[in-house]
Specification:
single chain, 255 residues, mainly alpha, 3-stranded antiparallel β-sheet, two-stranded antiparallel sheet, 52% helix, globular
Length: 255
C-alpha cells in the first residue's frame, strides 16, 4: 500500500497505467519511473512516454516492496516482469490464480481500497491522523508530477553512442576498483560517471539487460560492483528473476 500510494502521489498515473508498469520502467537508482500516458478522450496514437521523478518515500517503499515481490513470485513459474503483483490467490473463470500474478486495474483498485479501509480503522483516533482516500482516483487528483518526455522507442544511432559511453565509464570504474586506491576522488567521480551514463541510456529506452551485459564486459559484473555504479541491488534481483537467472556474488565473480 505504501509503495503504490507513494508512487501514485508522485506521478499522478492512473490504475491502468500503474498496472502496465514493469521492472524495466524503474530507473537503475529507483529515482524515476517510465510511464506511457494515455490521456482520456484521445486516440491511441496520442499516447506519449514520460519519465517521472520519484520521491525518497517512493524509493524507500519500493526497496521494501521489491523483496516482498520476489517472495510472492516464488509461487509463480516462468519469468515475471510486472512491477505490481497480487498478494493473495484468487479465482478467474473457474481457474485458480496464485499470488504473485500481475495485478489488473480492478484488482489494484480493490486492493488499495481494502488496505486503506483497514488502515483508517486501525489508525482512527491517533494524533494528527487524517483518513486516507479509499479510491486511487482521489489520491491522484491535484498531483503535479515532475516529468520529462522520453522516446517511446530508442533511436538506434543514439543508443549505440550511449552504450559506448556506458562501456567506457564502466571500464574506468572497474580499473579504479581493481587498483583499490583509497582516500582520493577518482573512484567517487567514476561512480558518478557510470551512474549518469546508465541513467541516460535508460532514459533513451535501452533495456536493463543490455546495459548490464555491457557493464559485465567492462568489468562490472557482480552486484557489489554494479551497486557502486548506482544500481539498486533489489532491482538487480528483480531483473534476474525476470530473466530466470541469478547474479554472481563478488567472490564468485572474482574467481
Amino acid at each position: 500500500m505504501l509503495a503504490v500510494g507513494a508512487v501514485v502521489s508522485d506521478t499522478g498515473i492512473r490504475s491502468g497505467e500503474m498496472c502496465a508498469r514493469t521492472i524495466e520502467d524503474l530507473s537503475p537508482t529507483l529515482e524515476e519511473l517510465r510511464a506511457v500516458r494515455r490521456p482520456q478522450g484521445r486516440s491511441e496514437s496520442e499516447a506519449f512516454t514520460e519519465l517521472l521523478a520519484l520521491s525518497g518515500l517512493s524509493r524507500s517503499a519500493l526497496k521494501r516492496w521489491l523483496p516482498e515481490r520476489q517472495q510472492l513470485l516464488e509461487r509463480v513459474g516462468g519469468t515475471a516482469t510486472a512491477l505490481w503483483v497480487s498478494l493473495h490467490g484468487n479465482h478467474h473463470d473457474g481457474q485458480v490464480v496464485p499470488a504473485g500474478t500481475p495485478l489488473m486495474p480492478c484488482g489494484l483498485a480493490r486492493a488499495w481500497t481494502r488496505a486503506v479501509v483497514e488502515t483508517n480503522v486501525a489508525m482512527a483516533g491517533q494524533p494528527s491522523w487524517e483518513p486516507l482516500p479509499t479510491r486511487m482516483e482521489q489520491l491522484r487528483r491535484g498531483v503535479k508530477p515532475s516529468a520529462v518526455r522520453a522516446p517511446t522507442m530508442p533511436d538506434a544511432e543514439k543508443a549505440a553512442v550511449l552504450l559506448d559511453d556506458v562501456a567506457a565509464r564502466g571500464r574506468t570504474l572497474a580499473e579504479l576498483r581493481r587498483a583499490g586506491e583509497e582516500g582520493g576522488t577518482a573512484e567517487p567521480q567514476g561512480r558518478i560517471a557510470v551512474r549518469q551514463a546508465v541513467r541516460d541510456a535508460w532514459a533513451e529506452g535501452i533495456e536493463h539487460t543490455v546495459q548490464l551485459s555491457t557493464l559485465a564486459h567492462a568489468g562490472l559484473a557482480d552486484t557489489v560492483s554494479l551497486a557502486a555504479g548506482g544500481w539498486e541491488p533489489v532491482l538487480l534481483d528483480a531483473i534476474d528473476r525476470g530473466q530466470g537467472r541469478g547474479r554472481p556474488t563478488k567472490a564468485a565473480a572474482a574467481e
